[in-house]
Amino acid sequence: xxxxxxxxxxxxxxxxxxxxxxxxxxxxxxxxxxxxxxxxxxxxxxxxxxxxxxxxxxxxxxx
Length: 63
Fold this sequence. Notes:
Elements: H1 2-22, H2 33-59
């Protein structure tokens, strides 16, 4: 059972580790739930954009 869960944990912890170490942490200091949702959404968007660039640079040869 732990082997199955560990596959998911490893992938999710990588995302949270990146947010905490490279994007200023996951502790959100905003007033209101709407602003907190926007901040988390922006952090997710930035993570996905950085991941996309990283994956594209692996696939495409440097020109």
